[in-house]
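Collaborator request, handled under Task 6.
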Amino acid sequence: MELLFCVVHGHRLVEELLTGFLDVGIRGATVVDAKGMAEILTTQVPIFAGFKSLFPVGGGHTYVIMSALEQDQVDVAIRLIEEVAGDFEQPGSGILFTVPLSRIKGLAGEL
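Structure tokens returned to the collaborator:
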């Protein structure tokens, strides 16, 4: 299994991705509100406030979607994310990565 992380901007994208996950058979994901480094530095650290235009920032609120996926679901999930959110080629548009899982507790099919 792999743990998929996807950082996107905007509530509408999250809704589309979660609905799409259901459509392709992915039944579990966790969504976390997030703040990027640029947002924190430019809004909460006064010395960096003037540098806001230098940081690539996506539009809308930031969310992290995480899902533990079977190997055969990973490519399906990535294709769906790219269809809905794009390829993340532009700085600040989002990020997507996976990490291998060696143990899982709390899922129906534990490793």
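The cover message to the collaborator said: "Strands lie at 2-9, 30-34, 62-69, 95-100. The helical segments are 11-23, 37-44, 71-85. Please let us know whether this matches your experimental observations."
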